[in-house]
Write a structure and sequence with these properties.
Among the domains are: 205 residues, Sandwich (Immunoglobulin-like); 195 residues, no CATH class. It is built from four helices and 42 strands. The protein has a 24-stranded mixed beta sheet that branches. With 741 residues, the chain is mainly beta.
């Protein structure tokens, strides 16, 4: 099996590397019209005022296109951009007209909080390596709330990384103005002179519909965004590197628990536990970056994200937010998530142990305590070939006492056959020896495990038709201890497609779709079979609606249980004060996985984001899941009900400083008489935190952040599956790490 997989994969790579394929995928020019930039003729102050003389001589961009919902038509509002640069910075300014400046949507908020596209914002995409594949995003709202991210046409957008840059905005009687200053020390570019980059100027105008306006045409149905950027010429004699960034942090936590662990007893405060750490980044030149961290700040992992855990089979995923692990994050994003947390990058970490490790299986995952240290190596190399690429990934986790290891390696690729078709794939092989700790996990008996993991898919997009096919094959012995792979020992076949139309009026886009998903274990026994037809639409009020029918059969225990459901998603961004309101979930039949039998009950996830003032934001979440089963006497009785209630209040003093309070309560009520194994009738978990945060970013390479956190927890913990812990707990350890790119 391993030889066949590798042979097939090598054949695909040889085809990709053939002269014909290279010629077909090579990008001779960027799609958009070239933009030529020149050096600034004088100093520029970033204050939201475009009266500086240097702006009068800067490159002016006036040609824009409405790319959504219109199909590259003349925009409804006028936008003008200005570009220039000096020895240290790239400068971009925007003069944005608005027929009703009083209706501009831009409440204050934390970094990266642009409310899902419901705010007025503007900015740029930069492809500084000129690959036509990856880009860095810098956007700012009309209230100077910054948003930055990296985007890859293969893996979409990731807003976790934060960069050092400056901006200023001002709302005027004609609209609003924005200035952006990007230090070259925050960018990665080739060691060449002159430079040629890709750039896309972009404006979000969320009034009625969400109008998206760009500096180049973006045809509907394309599978490539970055390759269509404007070409940016004229950058000469840019700095070669030598920049240092130090970001220390200090935080403290305190836990309160019921006296004697008795539910309802008074809370007793534990000791206050302070934590100190630092991230250091050094860029010796424009092509390389060295990162060093001591005890990374785990308060930046969003492990308190509200998610229902009851009746779930697999571990829940939480986004990585720690700066050290986000350098070159786009390189670690591969079809198989073998790294959780050029072009090449390498990371070495000393993990002090603690938390939990995932034990994957074909039908579910579990956890084992990881109370031993280890050394971790992660390395990734990628070679671009036109708009396509080939790469290789290597990970190695060695337990510190020599008792156990996990080593993973294999190639991956993406092949853009045409503007409509892209094929992506990865194959990995793992060699593992589990720890000799059967007291922690039954499979940890110092046994040897080996296995493979294959993931390949083909996406096709046109103006109206889109479809995709996926094939996965993960051996039972495959392990990726440095990644997030909660399911192994199965094969999966997926196929689906949709047809889109673009009416005018209340609905801007409607898509009818159907997909089929089939999973079986390595012996051929069904794990799940899923068929879902449905339709969705974009509406006025920045709305999105989707309705689907679910016909599903899934293994539970020793048999396969069927369920038929109605699924729905309803989201709107109705106004300046109610920036988001949404509900999603399912109705109808369900499965009781704990007791392997059919059930019935809804799952409802409701949320809203309110802005009583431009400074105050209230985030509300109420998630509910209920399940009823046959009690054996012909009656239906409630098995469990789980609630996740969350309130987050954020008061933003300026775009750089805010105070935040979060309260979350998770409660589960059960009928123990309906369970095959003993369970508690009630359990609950209350968590609260307070943060005061000042964000300081500048080109002089200094950033400090102080956080004050206080957690109070009460009750017996989460009920249902152990998945509530999620993978971040498996990573919450101290230690030292180094990272080179």
């Amino acid at each position: 099996m391993r030889a066949r997989l590798l042979a097939g994969f090598i054949a695909s790579l040889l085809l990709l590397l053939s002269p014909a394929a290279v010629a077909q995928t090579a990008r001779t020019t960027l799609s958009g019209e070239p933009i030529r930039i020149s050096r600034a003729t004088g100093p520029i102050t970033i204050d939201g005022d475009l009266s500086d003389e240097a702006w009068q001589h800067a490159t002016r961009v006036e040609k824009w296109y409405e790319v959504t919902p219109g199909d590259n038509v003349e925009p409804k509002v006028k936008s003008v951009a200005y570009l220039t640069y000096d020895d240290r910075f790239l400068y971009v300014a925007f003069d944005l007209s608005d027929p009703d400046p009083s209706a501009v949507r831009a409440p204050l908020g934390d970094h990266d909080s642009l409310n899902g596209g419901s705010d007025d914002f503007v900015g740029i995409f930069l492809d500084t390596l000129n690959t036509g594949r990856t880009a860095t995003e810098f956007f700012v709202s009309a209230r100077n709330v910054q948003y930055d991210a990296v985007t890859d046409d293969a893996s979409s957008e990731n807003s976790s990384p934060d960069f050092f840059w400056d901006s200023a905005t001002r709302i005027t009687t004609r609209g609003w103005v924005a200035e952006i200053r990007l230090p070259f020390s925050s960018l990665r570019y080739k060691n060449a002179d002159p430079q040629t980059w890709g750039i896309l100027l972009f404006r979000n105008y969320p009034h009625g519909f969400r109008y998206q306006i760009a500096s180049t045409r973006l045809p509907r149905g394309g599978n490539c965004l970055v390759c269509r950027f404007n070409r940016l010429d004229g950058l000469e004699r840019l700095p070669a590197g030598g920049h240092l960034v130090a970001a220390p942090y200090v935080n403290a936590g305190q836990t309160a628990s019921p006296a004697g662990d008795v539910l309802g007893a008074p809370l007793v405060n534990g000791d206050i536990k302070p934590k100190i750490g630092v991230d250091v980044k050094y860029t010796p030149n424009a092509d390389n970056a060295l990162d060093f961290t001591v005890k990374p700040d785990f308060s930046q992992v969003e492990s308190d994200t509200a998610q229902i855990s009851a009746n779930e089979r697999f571990a829940l995923f939480f986004p990585e937010k720690r700066p050290f692990f986000l350098e070159g994050v786009d390189l670690f994003q591969t079809p198989i998530q073998a790294v959780y947390t050029i072009r090449y990058t390498a990371l070495v970490a000393d993990d002090a142990g603690g938390g939990s490790a995932i034990l994957p299986g074909p039908n579910g995952s579990s956890f084992a305590s990881q109370d031993f240290g280890s050394t971790v190596l992660l390395a990734r190399a990628k070679r671009d070939i036109g708009l396509s690429f080939v790469g290789v990934l290597v990970t190695d986790r060695e337990n510190r006492d020599g008792d156990g290891h996990n080593r993973v390696a294999g190639p991956d690729f993406q092949w853009r056959l045409s503007p409509r078709d892209v094929v992506t794939g990865q194959v990995l092989f793992s060699d593992s020896r589990t720890p000799s700790r059967p007291d922690l996990a039954d499979e940890w008996t110092a046994q040897r495990l080996s296995g493979h993991a294959l993931n390949t898919y083909w996406n096709h997009n046109t103006t109206h038709l889109d479809w995709s096919v996926v094939y996965k094959d993960l051996g039972a012995g495959f392990r990726a201890d440095a990644g997030f792979v909660p399911q192994v020992g199965y094969r999966e076949y997926f196929g689906g497609g949709g047809w889109q139309v673009y009416p005018k009026g209340l609905v801007a886009r409607e898509r009818t779709f159907v997909f089929v998903d089939y999973q079986a274990d390595q012996a051929g026994a069904v794990i799940t079979r899923d068929v879902q037809p449905g339709f969705g639409m974009d509406t006025r009020g920045n709305g999105f609606l989707q309705f689907r029918y679910v016909d599903n059969r899934t293994r539970a225990g020793g048999g396969v249980v069927g369920r038929r459901q109605f699924g729905y998603i309803i989201n709107f961004n109705p106004s300046r004060r109610v920036t988001f309101i949404g509900v999603n979930g399912t109705l109808g039949q369900d499965i009781d996985f704990a007791n392997a039998r059919p059930g019935r009950g809804p799952t409802v996830n409701a949320s809203a984001t309110l802005h009583p003032t431009d400074h105050l934001e209230l985030g509300l979440i109420e998630d509910v899941r209920t399940l009823s089963v046959d009690d054996g006497a012909g009656s239906s009785r409630r098995l469990f009900t789980q609630h996740v209630s969350r309130v987050k209040g954020t008061y933003t003093f300026t775009s750089r400083m805010f105070a935040r309070v979060i309260a979350q309560y998770v409660s589960t009520t059960r009928d123990p008489s309906l369970y095959a194994s003993p369970v508690a009738a009630q359990s609950g978990d209350f968590g609260g935190s307070e943060d005061t945060k000042t964000r300081r970013k500048n080109a002089k390479s200094a950033a400090t952040e102080t956080r004050r956190r206080r957690d109070k927890r009460r009750g017996a913990g989460f009920g249902g599956s152990a998945c509530a812990a999620g993978l971040p707990q498996a990573s919450q350890t101290g230690g030292r790490a180094t990272h080179v790119r």
